[in-house]
Amino acid sequence: MIHLLRRCCLLLAVWQAPFFPSAQTIQLSMPDTTVLAGDTLSYPITATAGFNGVVSAQFSIQWNPSVLRYIGHLPVDLNQIAVGETSAAQGALRFSWFDVGGQGITLAPGSQLVRFRFRAEGQPGDSTPVVFTNEPLRIQIFRAGSTPGLFDSLVLVQDTGLVKIARVWQPTAVSQNPTCFGMNDGTASVNAADAPAGAQFLWTGPNGFSSSSPVLSDLGPGAYNLVATSSQGEVLFETTITLNEPPPLQPDLGDDLQLCPGESSTLSPGTFAGYLWSDGTTAAQLPINQTGTYSVTVNDAQGCTASDTIAVNVSADVQIVVENDRLSICPGDSVQLRVSGGETYRWTDPSNTLSSTTIPNPVAKPQQSSSYTLIASNECASDTIQFSIFVHQTDASAGPDTCIQRGQELRLYARGGVRYAWDRGEYPLNSYSSSDPLSTPLSSTVYRVEIVDANGCKTTIEVPVTVVDGAPDILLINMITPNGDGRNDVLEFQELGKFTNNALKVYNRWGDLVYQKLGYQTDDERFDGTWNGKPLPAGNYFYVLSFSEVHYKQTLTIIRD
User: Terminus-to-terminus CA distance in the chain, angstroms?
Assistant: First the structure.
């Protein structure tokens, strides 16, 4: 009875306390939350700020009773509260509390005054705000003042709550494959709107991919793993989505194409939804008969595209073109044949003197005049031509090896040219450009001459000369039998060819000169027993073989059968 009396007196004192407008506030809040239909919700009122020295508080709470049904309450950090439940069925509660000691209570921010228990009666998707109101009980909150027995009124700054009736979450992950091969426009998502409050999502995928968004876009092919967890870290849902890209479009115009003159073909890349050729046409096929590069871009029903290109060459008729006409050479020289007009070449080379028989520009080095046949061809036609290479023959000579006596003058004999060029050797010549210069070598030596004939062909010849002391050792011949049997038909001396600087004179028995020759046996001419083209009668003759200061005289008998 005393306790009740004191509470009544305090309440009367609060109601009768003078009201002084002030900016002092107190902040109370109720949370936004989601609850499944049919579940029980424990719903707190929290002192957010300004609960300092509070001696009394009263207010009303209202909500939609079709969404939430009140089933009770539980004091938490504030004892001896009173809750009026007479209007709970209509969605209203009355809250009142008094500090019976009159000193005031202070609660730290985050302290809960009370927790109300509700049952979710609404349908999934329903919601109701939970607010502080003046009906049916006025909002009045007082704080102990500086003067005992006087109290300050506090203005309530409220943070109202919203309670939603959640659907039972049935997690579903959906995806869309990339549209075309090579594109990254795939998607994946989970129905996060129905997930419990505070749910978190973690995607992982190829190449280190990760995301916390429930909706993904711009994805390439691969496997994407999803783990959904509650705000407390409990795994709510796991799944793997595999995105597959469609196979690439593969238009195929084939290998590059070779056509013959007058021939045509049709290009076809395969079967697709659409076509765009390089000439702007859109048919499935393209007829062609001209050289060029042709391309096509195709597409399928999804709009994916791909391209292919082909080169077409229309061959020309084969006509061999000879690019050089220098087809005569000197012995030992070579000439490069140069032709064009074909794609492949085949030479016929009977003398086996071409560097190659399959190229358009082989090098020919025949030793004598030769002929070659060329067949040039492409895939459509061929042409044939014959080449003849004339090799000039030379008769340049400079005589045989020669022997002379020391101190004897030597005459050299070069033949077969129109120009002569002797090397300037150890022993000088009286002319370096004549065919038969003179020299007096003191020791054995070699003379070298370049002979240019009427065709411009050059021949280089060396003439070894041996210098000996004393008279030449020549075996003298005393008989010839010019009967044509091949034995002793002509006058010929052994070793005389080495002593070219000689002179031979033949006389009959009366001393008449019937034959003479300088440089006997330096060429093919021999004394054969004739004079002025007529045979000399058989009998005795004599000859003089001279070498500078040395003269050999010998009788010669001509015997005829």
Answer: 196
